Amino acid sequence: MAYLTALFEISGLNILLALSVFATLMVGQFSLAQVGFWSIGAFVSAMLTTMYGFPLFPALMISGVLCAIIGIALGYPCLRIKGIYLTLATVAFAEVVRVFFSNLHHQVEIDGRMVGPAGALGFRGVEVIAAWPEIYAVVIVVIGMFFWIERSRIGLSANAIREDETAAAAMGINVVLVKVSMFAFGAAVAGIGGGLYATFSSFVLASNFSFHLALISIFYVAVGGMYRFYGPIVGAVLLTSLPEVFRFAADYRMILYGVVVLVVVAVFPRGIVDEILFRLAERRERMRVRNAESQSSAGHTTVVRNES
Amino acid sequence: MIVLEYAISGLLFGATYSLVAIGFTLIFGVLNRFNIAHGATLMVSAFAGATISILLGGADSYLVLILAFVGSVIAGAIVGLLVRLVAFVPLRNAAALSPFVTSAAVALILEELFLHLTQQVPIYSVEVTEFPSPLENLAFFVGDLYIRGAYLVIFVVALVIMALLHWWLNHTKSGLAIRAVEENPDVAWLLGINGHRVEIMVFAAASAIAGAAGCLIGVAYGSVSPFLGSNLLLVSFVVLVLAGIGSVRGAMICGLFVGVIETVTAGTISSETKEAVLFIILFAVLVIRPQGIFAGAASTRD
User: Where are chain B's structural domains?
Assistant: First the structure.
């Protein structure tokens, strides 16, 4: 039971990571920086709660706001860069953050022992104050925000920008504003998620938030779906439980994991959720066209009959 | 004086970065897609070379070293073609993100596979597998400067490979076809160039070059490990951005430059800061001059 609870909790954390990647993907920006924000959130929340006695939610709020500010600072110069160059810039950001936290030494003495980030050894003994109720409270709030964004002007503008930036700008959409705010929103989600991760797992190691994790976070979105926000949720839950399903394969389960990602992306290039939605929409469209055709041909025969 | 020594060994070793980045940039030029499995290809071929060297007792035989090098190159080409078949062919018309993900998945599979092989095959060791070579103890002195023989050899070999590549791309018909596809795939198709054949050629050549780089790096380090590739992939990102994506000549020069920066920072400050310095340079170049220092026509495509 404890094992299933842990799986449930980790799924929740990965949902937050996947949604933060998705937030930047909504404006067509493919970012690998979310891991960097995740790392910042984890260290800041861990330090605030364990070393300075902050309660959980204020610490998470501070990490989220801090990451949003850094996100704006990073997103603004990055707007000049497009496509694959932007992706590389975000890789650079995540790597710099990783090196920074691997070299951060800042410890205080609490109850006779030293607590705090100790360079490459990481931050041990973070107070564990988050479990599934806290994690899923945040997940539900974030999903609610995505639900609202998708229906709001900013979500519609984001979709327009993703489809065609020039056309969107011509329609009077403030491309810079929408892009930077979605980037900052994604950063804030990652920061809060990282904070939850730190206070859930009690141990934060900067080298865990590497390029490898960035690729895994992209897997969630690519497997789940890149167009609607429930795609990344499905992807995160699926890929988090996958290694457990493959427990029979023992040491080879990560290889199977890679094979599954490969096959799913090859079969569902849009991701599972969006591919299914797309195929359903296509079928509905075909049905509609067929109905319209049969109706018009029926109308045609009546015309003929009238003439005769 | 010591800084000069660092700079020279960085310059010599940087030639391998050039090789990795050239392969990466060639594939990007033709497909307009990133091949994340490029680092894993390099790792697998380095293991192939190490295996040959271990089995044939390559600690003091130059013949075995040459055999290991050839083995690495062939292994690289084979793995590269497999990567293309698995990760790129099924997704020809998909969004840009899909081949990125599939090639990353292939990289993950190969890394995990070799992680297990190193634990189970007796000739490999768990953390780092030895790559025995007669160059291990070779050293030269130029005045007071100490130069590792292995570095000098890899520099020369890398230069020969780059010269061959330069000749192939600029003075042969197939090289012309590759440049045509890089410039504009549709027009190249209209002119009767078989795009698929060019793709196969480029994947084989780029991955063979990665294989050569893998062997050279293995010899220089004296060891290989399953995570060899992912670190080099990140370094080659830096080379790529400095050079301007798609610029082969830029990648050659910037690889050396990155090698110098890396070794000098690692030597004078610390080995941890070297990555940070490289990525700060990457970031700065992207923001100030996104098209790279050696911008070519190919890099304007998005």
Answer: 2-300
A261 contact residues in B (CB cutoff 8 A) = 101-102, 105, 108
Domain locations in chain A as residue ranges:
2-257, 268-308
Size of interface A-B (CB pairs under 8 A): 124
Residues 6+ apart with CB under 8 A from A155: A26, A149
Residues of chain B with pLDDT under 70: 290, 292-302
- Distance in angstroms between the alpha carbons of the first and the last residue of chain A: 78
Bridge partners, residue B159, by sequence:
none
Which value does ipTM take for this structure? 0.82
Topology annotation, domain A2-257: ABC transporter involved in vitamin B12 uptake, BtuC (1.10.3470)
* CATH number of the B2-300 domain: 1.10.3470
Lowest mean pLDDT among A3-17, A87-101, B134-148, B213-227: B134-148
- Residue B91 is classified by DSSP as G
At residue B297, the pLDDT reads: 45
Chain B nearest-CA distance from A66, in A, is 21
- For the stretch A224-254, pLDDT in tens is 888 888 889 988 998 888 878 777 777 788 8
Q: What is the mean pLDDT of residues A49-65?
A: 86
Put simply, the answer to whether B105 touches A83 (Cβ < 8 Å) is no
Residues on B contacting A at a C-beta cutoff of 8 Å: 28, 34, 36, 86-87, 90-91, 94-98, 100-102, 104-109, 112-113, 116, 119, 230, 233-234, 237-238, 240-241, 245, 272-273, 275-276, 279-280, 282-283, 286-287, 290, 302
